[in-house]
Amino acid sequence: MRPNWIARATAVTFTVVVALCCLFPFAWMALSSFKTASELYAVPPAWWPSAPTLDNYRRVLFASNVPRYFLNSLVISAGSTGLALGLALFAAYGFARFRFPGRRSSLAFVMAGQLLPTAAIIVPLFMALRALGLVNTYLGLILVYTILTLPLSVWMLSGYIRAVPVELEEAATIDGASRLGVLFRITLPLCVPGIAAVVVYAFVTTWNEFIFALVFAQDSHVKTLPIGLAEFTSEFTTDWGAVMAASMVMTVPVVVAFLALQRAFIGGLTAGAVKG
Amino acid sequence: MRQRGGLLFVMPALVVLALLIVFPVCYMGWLAATDSQGHMALRDNVAAVTGARATRIAVWNTIVYVGASIVLQLVTGTAVGILLNQAFRGRAVVRSLVLLPWVVPGIVAATTWAWMLHTEFGIVNQLLLQVGAVSKPVGWLVDPDMAMPSLIAVNVWKQSPFVAIMVLAGLQAVPKELYEAARVDGASFLGEVRHVMLPGIRDVLVGVGLLLTIWGLNGITLVYAMTRGGPANRTLILPIQIFRLAFDAFQLNQAAALSAMFFACTLVLVWFYVRLSGRREDRA
Q1: Termini Cα distance of chain B
Q2: Is B10 among the domain residues?
Q3: Which of A58, A85, B208, B246 is the most exposed place for a label (fewest CB within 10 A)?
Q4: Domain-located, residue B274
Q5: CB B108 within 8 A of CB B154
């Protein structure tokens, strides 16, 4: 439109500044993770590791609980994602395709669950889980993580299901398919992008979660990665090289998943929160 | 639309949510109203919590932390969202990069920034010293006057991308004709921002603002991992205080009383958000 070079220069500068602010911490994390102790604690700090070392990674991967925590995180995130997805599929189908008494209030209840003040219910939840013997178990964490991810999963999926033409389902019903048959053979195959979005969302949310893990997993055989990371920093002398290496181990899978599936990620996110 | 059977599909999810949410909330009420022997002690618990100096400090800190974070997140996020809505080469790449802070685990953001803001070895102090902006290293996380602003800054860095992507989605729903009309009227870029873009995303901003408030109130990870409420309680926010009461002091009943009050406050916000979204659904 207006070939205004001042506006252009402002926009370019702003873009560069924004991109730098977003990226620099990750670059610094990566650089620090390859530095030796003497370079990490040099004043003034060295920008570039002059003798890149894998020692920090060696300490994290072979001399700490991090591999075990990685496995725990994997089991808990996968279990919770599976549970949330299963429950959400049916619930979303019910909300999208049926008008039943109490539909509006049930939907409001699910939505309110998405906004639940987790910090407020952590004490009673802890006591309830303790009474049921579920503290320090995979099952306990899988269950509590379902509260975090189920509401938005229902919300996202019902949007995708609504987009599938009802006529397709009616045609299948006329051909003699049962209602469950319709759901699994007609509707679900058409909602694969929505399912992918829910899986990514639920997995990343549980993978990243910190506070529930801190309270409900106090034993090293169920602790998750975020807790492992906090353990490195909580000691009096923090091993910053190992902390940065462990941060890398934890961040890389999330970033790779995000970059590979970002269409599903952003689509699900905005569908859930903007379109309503 | 079919009428019956819907409840059957919805039921499993509702039952799980009810068990995991309604039951603990009721249990919280019971704990708040009794002492550790199970005798009625609601007034004692409430008095103990409201009378404690730590509670008053925590309430004030929470207001400062959440309030300042939200204003800054909305401003930065909107600016970045408008930027991403412009057509330029490499926009898709920048859009992915901008989302990274929001995607990474909160604990990673906390540890990385704690390292960068380290008083002696942190890169931030180093850069500021080199440029000459400060004459001696700043104790970003250990100086009582700097800890809260530092946490707010990290929180803004972490959450603004979410605002930006929401604003972007909202802007793309603004009809093209409005821009064209504004241009015909000779509006400048800032005029377009003020008269076309901001009115177009008002609903989005209100919804996102409420979401950010609710998340901010619950957002304990950054504070817990970076300062644990210190130095000298200057970053003690309510979730941390609940945590301390319950798991450091083992005053579970007092912790439940404080939780219940905190819960009631957030519930008001949640109610506004649900009503707002309901209205939007009706209009759509």
Answers
A1: 18
A2: no
A3: A58
A4: yes
A5: no
